[in-house]
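Example 3.2
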Amino acid sequence: MSHSHTARSKFTIASWSESVIVDIDGEGTTAGDTYYPTRGANRATVAYSYSGDIDGTSTVVYLIAYKADAAPVLGLERFEGSIGGHDGTCVFQHIGSQDQGSVSARIEVVPGMGTGGLIDLRGSADLSIAGPGDSGYDFVLSYDVG
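Structure, written as tokens:
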């Protein structure tokens, strides 16, 4: 579906907390305080900060699968701020996959979950991330607000 507006921004990770839900084989690695199963699933709560045409903050809860090849990642993100000059809140749904060094996801606005100037927001974005994002990650949302 095409939308009539495009919002370009960068987002950075303000915080990341991850914990194990299922460890299938009892094998994995630990980095910092986080354990990553070789095969299993974790839950992550992540705070993002956006700047640009999308300006604000959000919290997302991810369910992340771990396995040898492309593994699913699902999430719901509550955004609060401004998109294209429209202030309010909205919810994004993330459906994607990850491997050792990259993440790709389709992000869709969840209809009926907006408030304020984002109450009628519709839109989507395709996200592709590879490697560390020391200066943030590009995020381009195609959208309509009415």
